[in-house]
Fold this sequence. Notes:
Blueprint: E1 2-7, E2 13-20, E3 26-30, E4 35-42, E5 48-50, H1 58-63, E6 71-72, E7 78-79, E8 83-86, E9 89-92, E10 101-102, E11 115-117, E12 123-130, E13 141-149, E14 154-163, E15 167-168, E16 172-173, E17 176-177, E18 191-194, E19 196-202, E20 208-214, E21 226-227, H2 237-242, E22 246-251, E23 257-263, E24 269-275, E25 279-283, E26 291-292, E27 298-299, E28 305-310, E29 325-326, E30 331-342
Antiparallel strand pairs: 1-2, 2-3, 3-4, 4-5, 6-16, 7-10, 8-9, 11-12, 12-13, 13-14, 14-30, 15-29, 17-28, 18-21, 18-23, 19-20, 19-22, 22-25, 23-24, 24-30, 25-28, 26-27
The structure holds beta-D-galactopyranose.
The site of beta-D-galactopyranose has 10 residues, from β25.
Amino acid sequence: xxxxxxxxxxxxxxxxxxxxxxxxxxxxxxxxxxxxxxxxxxxxxxxxxxxxxxxxxxxxxxxxxxxxxxxxxxxxxxxxxxxxxxxxxxxxxxxxxxxxxxxxxxxxxxxxxxxxxxxxxxxxxxxxxxxxxxxxxxxxxxxxxxxxxxxxxxxxxxxxxxxxxxxxxxxxxxxxxxxxxxxxxxxxxxxxxxxxxxxxxxxxxxxxxxxxxxxxxxxxxxxxxxxxxxxxxxxxxxxxxxxxxxxxxxxxxxxxxxxxxxxxxxxxxxxxxxxxxxxxxxxxxxxxxxxxxxxxxxxxxxxxxxxxxxxxxxxxxxxxxxxxxxxxxxxxxxxxxxxxxxxx
Length: 344
Ligand code: GAL
């Protein structure tokens, strides 16, 4: 099913694409920003709960600056000093987070109309041509993001990109999850697990120092489920700098694997994050102040959390961090899955 999602300030008409599986789980995605707008999952009382934060119209997505549900690129997260060198040439980006570049820096991918292609009952592909020089990056890049809903209650997000020159590429999804329902308030009592033995230490500007720090004995240890609130106020450098959790975890293992989980005792709704990427930003909505959301909801600090699978932030400046250089003609292909189930 397709419905209108209003017009942008440029007069473009956005659409909302709905997909439903045999269990009644329903998601909606929009071509404006290739964003996930809705993910309704049945709770333990068989009531549908929309577990992602979002807005009611494309215009609200255009106004917002917290990246609800967004497809983020060309390089998600931060690049130190908003510049990088590639093949001996320096590229200047836009400094939009202090002196650093965050989530593309300018002309955000999540503030553009993507072209909906291959619209099927259970999947939609959004396509974006990102020309050479776009946001300061080299290479004409042909990018697509496919959302698919399966009968296993999985939202599969598949990223595919090719550039005609060497460039950087690090696409992510910036959905904020609240498994007690998008309008239910803080997530502090919900539990999270992150399958990571270490995280990348960052400075006060959230740029990795290059150190890989074991989580053992620190508030960053999520190897066993614990409530998000348990240690979030600890007097620990990373939490002070991030004003809560806002770091990159070094995910254990490689290939498609479960890297994180979250669950709400209140609704019984649980999710797992599966990805083939090496890192994940776990961000606890520390910068949400007051966002007027969908269906009259008001979202505040820590009303949702993001599991942003990625190459490590500032990897272009760290030789021992993998990625995010994509060579001319090379296929950038990664997949992240958000999988849901309900516990009694
Ligand atoms: C996260 C980032 C945060 C914040 C947020 C958007 O990915 O790590 O520091 O910028 O996006 O508000």
